[in-house]
Design brief:
heterodimer, A: 417 residues, alpha+beta, Cytochrome-c3 Hydrogenase, chain B, 2 domains, 3-stranded antiparallel sheet, 13% strand, B: 338 residues, 13 helices, 72% helix
Chain lengths: 417, 338
């Protein structure tokens, strides 16, 4: 006879293709009626081999454009972290003006990303009117990005040792105009997202990540900050022009007075970060130093420098979703990178998914999952495919540990591969 | 009171012919209102939206497509449910007065029968969902059952309160639409009764989006959560039938609200005597009333709200709406005593 408990629970597969997911991932939900008992996350659906390309086919400058395409939304923070890593490895210091321009572009990306997220979140709870409203508002920043960089999405602004395009004085009024527009409608956005009854009903006390859990599960970015973890790379390890600015990690208690760590708090953090980004851009425009934007405009010469350089570097940037890390190793005489390792923020934030979904309802899954602002294409890099059987598998912890032990043993015998 | 005898007599041909005409009219206007609904909602959301005839195109396209029956499903039940849903939706139209005329089967069934008939299309959806054997459809079917049970009580309270009040005014069966039309609720009550009637109207207006499965009560379909829920496995002709049943049911439900609360006709007011112009004027006036009710209870609500969770929707119906309905009922009654 079957156990009575076994009969009441069943598994609902969410993904790899599901309307709640914007990118492929699989969540296996064990449910009892509407309640979620257990969650299993299966990643590895969008592996594209980007790091391999960077280490085997492309030279470091071509890699900037590859890094941009790690993720369509974070197409600034990935190249930002990448060039910082290469600059550190090759010992290049970018001009001061370039540092400011980088920050301006990065903050524009944050505004557009957070607004995009807000629209998606509204759609996930069935509030399509807000979704259309927010995406309409977002068009202004997209237009501004196109005005400044020449493209809406992949902007190709970054170059090792500076930026490829200057932001001129003539462009300042237009930028300020758009920022003023956002300042005027900010109050409206705040009313829509924080005071609307149905939004509160769907987001308050839903998907709670407590501070201690957030610390344990390494939550980063707005997900961590909404749980009261005051981590922000811009504040903790200020890079670029952020060092000149006074940036404080934003936590939800600024508005509510307490930290709950629910979806509502994540909305607050992202909303306030939009405001913070506007202030950062304005400050950068005011303080932007004169001078060159690139230390070496001749690409062939720059490539030669990189080819002869030897060293390693780590670039850390605060993406709209959290901390993104690029690790780069250069070997003298090698055209491509010797090592390239990307760690996207979603990789960390996914760890929280089982914790915040458990005990919730099926109806909460889309909004809770969306609340960490997941970005799968950034995350997937380790899938093992057996060509003979065409079987896909993911390395388990034990297997990885065993492989590392074996590698260490081989190295200790002096057998360097 | 002798409610059993009735002088109504209909020939078989009149019933069949009338039902076909009603089905065609119901389908046409149901789809037209769906198109208007989509267009208006789109404009409110700052979009252009689809052309008004889009629902007709959808039906035509769905009818031309392959109907896929899931291997895990119970094939005959899976295919029977769309038919049941459609037939009962059309049956609803024959009992509810539409286009300013009396109901086709007036006297053969009353408001109580309509309460039962309203459940059947939802039940067809639930059974079809369970029969499709998909976990998403199963969750959707469970949700549909919960929401059905939740809005049934406030709906019954609203309908019975009106009939009860009318039963004090007349000896004719108050559960028949012609009686409701003869003694409109607003004409029978004093100020307190008007407040009570408004409460009942409000209850029905909130029940309507639940009955026709629109945001915030489209929980059983919830695209982002359970990928279409009940209808996830339906395609082609079967989906077209459900779609059609859904639009006709929405039209019937709104007609019911109109028949209960706004049974007025324009022709006596402006003094038209001849038959043909009367029918035209009353039909147009009826369509306007349906549009207004639909605009408030479906289009406005669905553009201004997020989807509820099933527990929240259930709470709203069982607690809040039932309470408002009962307050309305008591107010109407107190009004009579005072």
């Amino acid at each position: 006879m079957k156990n009575k408990e076994m009969e009441t629970t069943y598994t609902i597969p969410v993904g790899p293709i599901h309307p709640a997911l914007k990118e492929p991932i699989r969540l296996d939900l064990k449910v009892d009626g509407e309640e979620i008992i257990d969650v299993d996350v299966a990643m590895g659906q969008v592996h594209r081999g980007i790091e391999w390309l960077g280490m085997n086919r492309n030279n470091p400058i071509q890699n900037i454009y590859l890094a941009e395409r790690v993720c369509g939304i974070c197409n600034i923070c990935h190249p930002f972290a990448y060039i910082m890593a290469v600059e550190q490895a090759a010992g290049i210091t970018p001009p001061e003006r370039a540092e400011y321009i980088r920050v301006v572009i990065a903050e524009m990306e944050r505004i557009h990303s957070h607004l995009l997220w807000a629209g998606v979140a509204a759609h996930e709870i069935g509030f399509d009117s807000v979704f259309y409203l927010v995406w309409r508002v977002r068009e202004k920043i997209m237009d501004l990005i196109e005005y400044v960089t020449g493209n809406r999405v992949t902007k190709a602004m970054f170059q090792i040792g500076g930026v490829r395009r200057d932001i001129t004085e003539e462009q300042f009024p237009q930028i300020r105009k758009t920022l003023d527009y956002y300042k005027t409608i900010f109050k409206q956005l705040k009313t829509v997202f924080l005071d609307d009854r149905t939004i509160r009903m769907r987001t308050k006390n839903v998907g709670v990540l407590k501070t201690e859990d957030a610390l344990k599960l390494l939550a980063c970015g707005p997900t961590g900050r909404a749980s009261g973890v005051t981590k922000d790379v811009r504040q903790d390890q200020a890079y670029g022009a952020y060092a000149d600015l006074d940036i404080k990690a934003i936590t939800p208690d600024i508005i509510t007075g307490t930290i709950v760590g629910d979806v509502y708090d994540r909305i607050i953090v992202r909303l306030l970060e939009v405001k913070q980004s506007i202030e950062i851009i304005e400050h950068c425009l005011d303080e932007m130093p004169p001078g060159a934007t690139l230390i070496e405009p001749k690409m062939a010469k720059l490539l030669k420098t990189l080819k002869t350089a030897e060293g390693k570097g780590v670039g850390r940037a605060e993406a709209p979703r959290g901390e993104v890390i690029h690790y780069v190793r250069l070997e003298a005489g090698r055209e491509t990178l010797a090592t390239w390792k990307i760690r996207a923020p979603t990789y960390l934030n996914l760890m929280s998914i089982p914790t915040i979904l458990k005990g919730g309802q099926i109806a909460d899954v889309p909004i809770v999952f969306a609340s960490i602002d997941p970005c799968m294409s950034c995350t997937n890099r380790a899938v093992v495919i057996d060509r003979k059987t065409n079987k896909k598998s993911i390395m388990t912890y034990e297997k990885l540990h065993q492989l590392s032990v074996e590698k260490t043993r081989r190295l200790s015998n002096g057998l360097v591969e | 009171m002798d409610w059993s005898s009735n002088s109504y007599s209909l020939t078989i041909t009149a019933i069949i012919g009338g039902s076909i005409v009603l089905a065609l009219l119901g389908a046409f206007f149901g789809l037209l209102y769906r198109g208007i609904d989509r267009k208006l909602a789109a404009h409110m959301q700052g979009r252009i939206g689809p052309p008004i005839i889009q629902p007709f195109r959808d039906i035509r396209k769905l009818l031309a497509k392959e109907s896929i029956i899931p291997d895990d499903g119970l094939s005959w039940l899976f295919q029977a449910c769309p038919f049941i849903g459609l037939v009962v939706s059309i049956l609803l139209l024959t009992y509810i007065p539409v286009f300013g005329q009396g109901a086709l089967l007036e006297g053969y069934g009353d408001l109580i029968l309509i309460l039962y008939l309203l459940i059947i299309p939802s039940l067809a959806l639930v059974i079809g969902g369970f029969a499709s054997g998909s976990p998403f459809a199963t969750v959707g079917a469970q949700r549909e059952m919960v929401i059905m049970m939740s809005y049934e009580f406030p709906l019954a309270v609203a309908i019975i309160a009106i009939a009860w009040r009318i039963s004090y005014v007349t000896d004719i069966n108050p559960f028949i639409f012609s009686t409701v039309a003869q003694y409109p609720i607003w004409n029978q009550v004093g100020p307190m009764g008007v407040v009570g009637s408004l409460a009942l109207l409000f209850t029905l207006l909130v029940v309507t989006p639940g009955e026709v499965a629109k945001v915030p009560f489209d929980i059983a379909e919830a695209e982002t959560e359970i990928a279409g829920g009940l209808l996830v496995e339906y395609s082609g002709r079967n989906l077209a039938l459900f779609y059609l049943a859904d639009t006709i049911r929405a039209f019937a439900m709104v007609s019911l609200v109109v028949a209960l609360f706004f049974p007025y006709n324009l022709s006596p007011l402006i003094g038209i005597g001849a038959t043909a112009p009367t029918v035209i004027v009353d039909s147009l006036f009826f369509l306007l009333k349906v549009f207004l009710v639909m605009f408030i209870s479906v289009i406005l609500i669905r553009t201004a709200m997020a989807r509820f969770k099933i527990s929240q929707a259930s709470y709203i119906y069982i607690m809040a709406m039932t309470l408002i309905g009962l307050v309305g009922l008591i107010l109407i009654h107190v009004d009579m005593i005072v």
